[in-house]
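Newbie here. two chains, one complex. Structure please?
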Amino acid sequence: SELTQDPAASVALGQTVSLTCQGDSLKTDYASWYQQKPGQAPVLVMYGKHNRPSGIPDRISGSISEDTASLTITGAQAEDEADYYCNSRDTSGDQVIFGGGTRLTVL
Amino acid sequence: QVTLTESGPALVKPTQTLTLTCTFSGFSLTTSGMCVNWIRQPPGKALEWLARIDWEDDKYYNISLRTRLTISKDTSRNQVVLTMTNMDPVDTSTYYCARTPECRANAPYYYMDVWGKGTTVTVSS
């Protein structure tokens, strides 16, 4: 099984953008989301239904609808410009899979 | 404070075996539900999960790389070691280790909450 993400997205400063992650595994596993800036390791920004790690701003939120998870950034800031990856286990539960990532540009 | 640090050679030759060590602190790999993962990222490309080891010493591997990978742990030294055989230039990547604090099969999600900074490995003759 695999997770599909749009390769790129853009948002105007202060506006709202939703990034999506689609896959069969999301019917049984919640997606987790990571933000990665150039030259840095990924950082967990959302997991489970609505779990946001400490230190992650509340303008970042998550949702799920059937086989598609969404990460929404409300009031995007310049520092939100990054690559975003989703992950889950596959339908067997043994493998861990990542989406191909979405490069978010803040205009 | 939870930290993970990857170490290993920066350069390996084709056909050689790569050995990477993840040294962690702030948690124990004997804690129920705990896992440590290895993930890699080729330059300019997406993340790829490689393997994980859990608190019961169960091991899981990326199906496409299974024959080349071995993961092990030394709980007394707080280390997880990954070996990858028969290295090829396409294996050139940054290799990360990351913690999953709840990796039981019945958990409704699988997340990696703390990552190391990564170590860059180049495969070239």
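Moderator note: Chain A is about 0% helix and 45% strand. The two ends of chain A are 34 Å apart (CA to CA). Thread marked as resolved.
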